[in-house]
Amino acid sequence: MVNLHRFANPTWFVKITTAILPWVVGITALLMGYGFWQALFVSPPDYQMGEAVRIMYVHVPAAYMAMMVYGAMAVASAVALIWRHPVADVAAKASAPIGAGFTLLALVTGMLWGQPMWGAFWVWDARLTSVLILFFIYLAYIGIWTSIDDPLRAGRAAAILALVGSVNLPIIHYSVDWWNTLHQPASLLRAGGPSVDAGMLPALLSLVFGYTTFYVMVLIWRMHRELVVRRIRALQLLHAQE
Amino acid sequence: MTRKRQRMIFVVAGVAALTVATLLVLFALEDSIVFFRSPTQIVEEGFPADRAFRVGGLVEDGTLERLEGNTVRFRVTDLAEAVTVTFTGILPALFREGQGIIAEGTLGPDGVFVATNILAKHDETYMPAEVVDALKAAGQWQGE
Q1: Among partner residues A45, A124, A182, which is closest to B119 by beta-carbon distance?
Q2: In terms of Cα–Cα distance, which of A71, A72, A75, A93 is closest to A83?
Q3: Is A199 close to B37, i.e. CB distance below 8 A?
Q4: What does pTM read for this prediction?
């Protein structure tokens, strides 16, 4: 059996992730390059929206990542709370700004898409409102980390907020089914398979996976940096005691 | 019981309780969370007479009339009941007969809904224009 506790060892974590990082960078470049080329030049215009459908290739993966990153952050927070694993704590902290960025991208591209298609930049329907709340939860989570100096106390408070906020994830996903909304139901993750034409799927799926590996890439960078910051802090404390 | 196990139970029970509480609140607030009412709901459950609300449905085929200026009149249907809507202004690009729309405005005593704003609601289907043309030519097209 693989000893999971080895993942909690920062030195071992840095060693492994440093080894896989070039691969992650390469795969991200390939997926995003292929995806954007497909999205801009190969995929067909939509029968209703025409060329404006291309906003989908930025918007849908960003919205998916906004929730995926939050899910990862919530799981890492639970692991950090229950098992006190330092690497999980660092993973949750390092994820937040990336997730907030994806959420902002989803909100902004959604507004730019909504104006010509729906006739409004913004409406207060259940889907749009719950995603805006997700963005605010990300900001509150980042706020806790920046306002509490002691990483141990900040980590615990932030982890609890992340878990409380995870209640919002099923609400976002099912909002379009539970209530009347202006936003249409899911096109990819739906019973009966995607309702996106096969000619549009290469662009959409390669960007969904490309955004995911992009997140992994930035996460590794940010976690390495955070681990170095914590080591410096620990050494400073040690030095001050001597 | 170890402290790890204690914390795990606490976290799982906490998130579960919070989820149930939130969902109960949301379903209790259902009336204010829904973005629009259907024509059937307006007929069966009434509507707020003193303030604006939204009605949503399909633009019924063959009912779209262009009046003087840029005023349009059409019926919004949920295939059971229908409401007549008038609107003056610029319609969204996706507006056409058979399209799902949401009208924002007030329902007058004459039963005509005077809209101040029209939003187009599109469904979750994405398809190339040329595929739709081919389907229409073959008589196989199911949508609008």
Answers
A1: A182
A2: A75
A3: no
A4: 0.90
